[in-house]
Amino acid sequence: xxxxDAADTLNVRTxxxxxxxxxxxxxxxxxxxxxxxxxxxxxxxxxxxxKCRNLVGWVNARFLIPHVEKAVASPEPAKxxxxxxxxx
Length: 88
Known about the structure:
By secondary structure, this protein is an all-beta fold. The chain has strands at about 10-15, 20-25, 35-40, 45-50, 55-60. It is globular, with a radius of gyration of 15 Å.
């Protein structure tokens, strides 16, 4: 994550709205945050639906940093496109 103070948390909400109920919080060093289907613009903010362990809800996308995995050479060719959810 980005822009979350080390002493703070990122709220995960029931809806893409800063006034929506908070379901839980993610620490600033959270890993394993998976992007799910769902992105919504509310005013100037873009919200993303995410899952981290058992917590599923909405976060402001400005705090997410896309995780890019390094390509590893494979001894056998891929058998077709594989779609994985984005990770932050």
